[in-house]
Amino acid sequence: MGVKARKKAITKQLNKGAIDFSASSKDEARDFLPLEGGPAQKLPKTEVRETKATVLYIGRIPHGFYENEMEGFFKQFGSIKRLRIAKNKKTGKSKHFGFIEFESPEVANVVADTMHNYLLFEHLLQVQLIPPEHVHSRLWKGVNRWYKPLDWVKIERKRQDKARTLDEHKKLVEGILKRDKKRRKRIEAAGIDYECPEIVGSIQAAPKKIRFDVD
């Protein structure tokens, strides 16, 4: 058998096998055709998992977009269950990220798709769904309480005005004199002719001795 005859026989067998395969799977639906001819192939079935997430993380929140503004903006999508913005415990200022929870998972999914990379006050919002298993148990702790930052000026004033013992006062004065001495040396090294005034209260008078007449 020549080369041409052998090649013709192999091609005939391949065509016959393709016809048999197509006949055996005639009733089965095919999803796509291969790129280089031949029988169609069936795609594996993939289950579409419905997300139950209702909590969203919102990052890059601009200044001035706080709880009231956030609630007024996002309630156009659906009913809001609760929301919070992370704040600095010392100053009470926004940390520019927060969380919002909707009543419906469908609404949360729409918000995540719509508002991600949304330009708001020159900030691109970063909106992502948080799976229910990743939501921290203390995420909403104290969310209904109005945060009132500490008055650090009042605290510092109270610390400075407290009554000190003699040893504490002596230690305070020593620190002031030490810093003043360094300051005088820096002024002198700079070539500035300046006479620094003495610190009032740095020298304490010796306590007077009281003599009692003995009868």
> How do the strands of the widest beta sheet line up side by side?
2-3-1-6
Q: Give the helix/strand class.
A: alpha+beta
What's the tally of helices?
Answer: 5
Mean pLDDT: 80
Q: Can you characterise this structure?
A:
With 215 residues, the protein is of the alpha+beta class. It has five helices and six strands. A four-stranded antiparallel beta sheet has the order 2-3-1-6, with helices on one face. Strands 4-5 form a two-stranded antiparallel ribbon. The chain is elongated and about 140 Å long. The termini are far apart. The mean pLDDT is 80.
SSE topology:
Layout (H helix, E strand, L loop, with lengths): L2 H22 L30 E5 L7 H8 L5 E8 L6 E9 L2 H11 L3 E2 L2 E2 L1 E5 L21 H9 L5 H24 L26
Antiparallel strand pairs: 1-3, 1-6, 2-3, 4-5
Pfam families: RRM_1 (PF00076)
GO cellular component, one term: nucleolus
Organism: Anisodus acutangulus
Task: List descriptors.
215 residues, two-stranded antiparallel ribbon, alpha+beta, four-stranded antiparallel β-sheet, 6 strands
Task: Put the structure in a nutshell.
The protein is built from 5 helices and 6 strands; from the N terminus they run H-E-H-E-E-H-E-E-E-H-H.
